[in-house]
Design goal:
9-stranded mixed sheet; 9 strands; disordered C terminus; 357 residues; alpha/beta
């Protein structure tokens, strides 16, 4: 993988390592297939507790398929800018802003059509690129994240978590106390160990479906889901900005309100996302090849959340993987085979030709 992936010195309007979006510098890596000619370009968009690096198991198979890869660090992550909120606007962490940045980067790279892949929040972002920039999108795959259409009716946070108990953890992870406890490399290391399979002497876990079990973190042995090299990379990258971008909230907030949204920047912009999407009809159809890979053991996006997606996605293909939330890391062989099969049969079937741009 490494021999074909470079961090570009992309100087359209920015310094080394990224491009300047509408305001901030977005960091990304670009991978080129072994052959000089390629069929198209795939943009990969990660979610929370991840980076572009989360796609490290998918990038080689996509390159070997003859596709170029652009994998970004989302706003607030890794080498990408992490604007402070406040004083900056929470809209910088919204789905529309992310979609606009992806469209801008595609334009700066001279691309008129792209394939999109997303996981977690990235799965929401790629669907929003389809809604805000439909002519740009050739095809989409989403690992674990179901398609959730825009809503014409605002839903208060408390109402949402009463109907979706799997989202209750948002409040805890966005609290000032939780963020303050994740400022040092040592604390970030404990966090990632809890996320990626660390277990206590009696099987204690670091997370449940409803909250972070921080009382267990100090007794967890290192999990086996990340190598030492991978583990160190995540810790170093998250130490750049702490949890400000991914998990920043108002330091003086004492209780949750929807105006003060005591949540993460990527999660506490619910109101901004809702208002942005009022311009989109809730029943808008995304008529491109769309692969959804359900992670059967995902406590945060359980199978019950993906019912009825065919109404909005007429070219939907459903596949499954017997793994947890980060199935592209936990079960990459299965996920990769689903992606390869979909590319063969839906995106580049014999006689369809190659993607332009």
């Amino acid at each position: 993988m490494a021999e074909h992936i470079v961090r570009p010195n992309f100087k359209a309007q920015s310094g080394p390592g990224g491009f300047r979006g509408l305001t901030e510098v977005i960091d990304f890596v670009i991978g080129k297939p072994p052959e000089e000619k390629y069929k198209g370009t795939v943009f990969l968009v990660h979610g929370f507790q991840d980076l572009w690096y989360g796609w490290r198991h998918q990038i080689p198979i996509i390159l070997n398929y003859g596709l170029r890869v652009v994998a970004i660090d989302c706003m607030g992550y890794g080498g990408t800018d992490a604007p402070r909120v406040p004083p900056d606007s929470i809209s910088l962490y919204g789905f529309k802003r992310a979609a606009d940045d992806i469209a801008d980067l595609a334009n700066q790279l001279g691309l008129s059509r792209i394939i999109l892949g997303g996981h977690d929040c990235g799965g929401m972002v790629v669907s929003r690129v389809c809604l805000y920039h439909p002519s740009l999108v050739q095809a989409v795959f989403s690992v674990g994240t179901p398609y959730l259409p825009p809503s014409a009716v605002w839903e208060e946070f408390e109402t949402m978590v009463q109907s979706k108990l799997n989202f209750q953890y948002h409040r805890q992870l966005g609290s000032p106390e939780f963020e303050a406890g994740l400022e040092s490399k040592a604390s970030i290391r404990r966090f990632f160990n809890a996320v990626y399979g660390g277990r206590g002497p009696n099987g204690e876990m670091g997370f449940s479906s409803s909250r972070a079990l921080t009382e267990n973190w100090d007794i967890l042995s290192k999990g086996t889901e990340l190598s030492d090299k991978e583990f160190d990379y995540y810790v170093e990258q998250y130490a750049r900005n702490g949890m400000h971008g991914p998990r920043r909230c108002h330091k003086d907030a004492q209780s949750y309100t929807d105006d003060d949204e005591l949540l993460v920047n990527w999660y506490r912009n619910r109101r901004q996302n809702y208002e942005d999407e009022l311009s989109i009809l809730p029943d808008t159809v995304i008529d491109v090849p769309y692969l959804f890979i359900q992670s059967l053991k995902d406590a945060f996006f359980p199978p019950s959340m993906n019912e009825g997606m065919e109404r909005y996605l007429p070219q939907l293909r459903r596949r499954e993987v017997d793994a947890g939330h980060a199935s592209h890391v936990l079960a990459p062989k299965v996920v990769n085979e689903h992606i390869r099969e979909w590319l063969d049969e839906e995106v580049f079937p014999a006689g369809k030709g190659v993607m332009k741009g």
